[in-house]
Amino acid sequence: MSQPQAVPAGAARAAASIEHPLDVALPYDIRPRAAKAVRDIQLQQFVANATTVKDRGRRDAFRAAFGARADQVRELAGRIKQHTLDHLDWYLDRFISAAQAAGVTVHLARDAAEANRICLRLAKDYGSKLCVKSKSMVTEEIGLVPELQAAGVETIETDLGEFIIQLDHDAPSHIVTPMIHKDRAAVGRAFQRELGVPYTEDPLTLAGIARDYLRQKYREADLGISGANFLVAKTGSIVLCTNEGNGRFCTSAPPVQIAVAGIEKLIPRMEHLGVMLKVLARSATAQPLTCYTHIITGPARERERGGPQAVHLVLLDNGRSEILREETRELLRCIRCGACLNACPVYRKIGGHSYGSVYSGPIGAVITPLLKGVANYPDLPHASSLCGACYQACPVKIDLPSQLIGLRQRMVRTRVTGWRERLAFRAWAWSLRQTWSYRWMAKVQRWALRRMARHDGLSGGDSTPMTSSGWIQKGPGPIAGWTSQRDFPAPAATSFREWWEGRGPSS
Ligand code: SF4
Fold it and tell me: What is the pTM (predicted TM-score) of this model?
């Protein structure tokens, strides 16, 4: 096998000129990207196949493990997280004391800038030059890697998916499966271009190349960065769940470890971890347990041969205290399993990059506007059919549809929704409350839509007054989006009410 070489500068520049999925103008308009995504047949196949398999796997795994009690287990997991959030100040105090007693240095960061500043200062203080990093959504959220790179700390993503995304100057499009939008040919091209190895699509060869490359980096690294799946308040432990073992290398090979975690990652005690691990692995990857579960309680002890000499934890707020308000608090129960993305018909069609943010899918549609401002992401609360599949999939029972509706209401209250839309819906609501205007509007609508319909014989023509006749292929206003993808059935000549009233006395 050819040895990986240094990244050719020209190739890196060429790849860097590709539009970065998270570089978006605010306020973010989802429509151009979503429209592009639905026309991309390959993307549709990758995302639909992967999410369908994962969604089915999750349901099977829950059924096999818990049978009819699956819902109770989700309830229990949700209650554990909700209880912790309801008493977050107390558990934070407890966790910080326990972590400090175990030798962890705890830092509190109000926002992304402060968290990055802390990490950069630590890297500088320790004279770090090479950092190996395990997968962490929160470090994506604060944009830590570019900051480290700009400060001269070479930072390598070590989760295979994230490694490929980094090589390709791309961004993750799924919480758990960051490269769900790529195939092995894209990986082969990225490896050839960036690592200077011969092109191959063979998964084993590609994994071997990545392994060789990363092993060397683990040996040389002087800094390891990770996230945290859970923080155990009683023991002060940081829990990491991975499937590739890279998390263990990142947190034990380099002499210094920095973990970055949102304040919502707390759970009270170790016995609660058992429940959370069970639902996390099954919801994320349909496994009974992730391959590696690391419980890190402080730096290496005396006489221990492995492990870091110093462990730092950056506890991040970055808007979470705002979400902690009663009406949105349940959102912080999220354990980033990705199950709601896999179940969501909208995510399956438009993929993760269409959301224009690190967090995509139903959970992203709610927390991105909350973290970054509703006015900056006005489309996201509407990027849902409210079918409820996300709620059914969520292992901690977050009522995502209600949260989406709550955000839409907030947009109206705070006038983020434009006056035309507000006026139109107010008028519509009023007219639906008056019988005469409801009937009159229904008549006008039926008349107008029937005039637009094409009668091609497929529906059997005007066979009865109660059946639809013909199809509308190019609809106006609110139905234009629908008819750009599929035909809309013309309404029947007679409404049900008219038919009912005109049917005469029943025998
Ligand atoms: S909202 Fe629920 S299903 Fe979605 S990522 Fe979070 S925990 Fe998983």
Answer: 0.89
